[in-house]
Specification:
Strand content: 25-35%
Helix content: 25-40%
CATH class of the largest domain: Alpha Beta
CATH architecture of the largest domain: Alpha-Beta Complex
Largest sheet: 7 strands, mixed
Distance between the termini: 31 Å
CATH topology of the largest domain: Polyamine Oxidase, Chain A, domain 2
Structural class: alpha+beta
Strand order of the largest sheet: 5-4-12-13-14-11-15
Number of helices: 8
Number of domains: 2
Radius of gyration: 20 Å
Number of strands: 17
């Protein structure tokens, strides 16, 4: 749920939207909608394949946020003491963070990053994060002088570069002529070290899919090395005797809702354990 300020407005470069199936999460979403922090966006996207651009079947309601999806994370953190730019270099038994004793630890991040922080003696946690690969995605945002397309989003099934295009103006409900494309994993891996060239190639692919004639006014690219967990687990989280917790969208199907449920259930378990 990463939002960047680009061209004077927030643009979502991570998750494109979220859906809601669980009743507990529904309570949170309804509150966001009531307070104007989130809004229903669409229930249908287009599909681009060998036949060109076609309309997809209706699916679940996708939600967006005018302030960007990261604003919803900030809302959840309201009233919580948050320390930024305070590097964590190690998590070990005790539990300890950077050698300091704490009541409990939660590593809410992709497994490869969590493993880099875990001490070798954290046997259960290292085992829980073993054999859990993820794939990269390169997100490219671009703004045009005017709208030349009429889609909410497009699942692209026949292109080696782009697999998803989101209309950021529609999902933000301000109609700005901004698109965000997510690349295929193979393309992201190939161009991880040359994002400027990658952005140009992605824009060409987007223009071809949507039949856009003009070049954009600006582009911005950002690489997500561990964007999509490839082997989601059945369990919602990990929390063992070491009181080191692991959670995120790899603990279930990779969705925003899954990440919330994972953290919520882990938090409930930690509260029960510490009480």
């Amino acid at each position: 749920m990463a939002t960047r300020l680009l061209g004077g407005r927030p643009v979502d470069l991570g998750a494109s939207y979220f859906t809601c199936r669980d009743e507990g999460f529904r309570t949170v979403v309804d509150d966001w909608v009531r307070r104007g922090l989130a809004h229903p966006w669409t229930s249908a996207f287009a599909v681009h394949n060998g036949l060109g651009l076609t309309r997809s079947e209706d699916g679940p309601v996708r939600y967006g946020s005018r302030g960007g999806l990261s604003s919803l994370v900030e809302d959840l953190a309201a009233g919580v003491l948050v320390s930024l730019e305070d590097p964590v270099t190690s998590v070990g038994p005790g539990p300890r963070v950077n050698g300091w004793p704490v009541d409990a630890v939660v590593l809410a991040m992709p497994d490869p990053r969590a493993r880099r922080l875990l001490d070798p003696s954290c046997v259960a946690e290292l085992a829980a994060t073993a054999d859990s690969p993820s794939s990269p995605v390169l997100a490219v945002a671009a703004e045009w002088t005017s709208r030349q397309w009429d889609v909410e989003g497009v699942f692209v099934h026949d292109d080696p570069i782009v697999e998803w295009i989101a209309d950021d103006g529609r999902r933000r409900a301000d109609s700005a002529p901004v698109l965000v494309a997510h690349t295929t994993a193979d393309f992201a891996a190939e161009y991880a070290d040359d994002q400027d060239q990658a952005a140009a190639l992605v824009v060409d692919a987007v223009r071809s899919v949507l039949d856009v004639a003009d070049e954009p006014r600006w582009t911005y690219a950002e690489l997500w090395p561990d964007a999509r967990p490839l082997r989601p687990r059945a369990a919602s989280y990990h929390f063992g005797e070491a009181r080191i917790g692991l959670c995120g969208d790899a603990w279930g199907s990779p969705r925003v809702e899954t990440a919330w449920l994972s953290g919520h259930r882990l938090g409930t378990e930690i509260a029960r354990t510490l009480s």
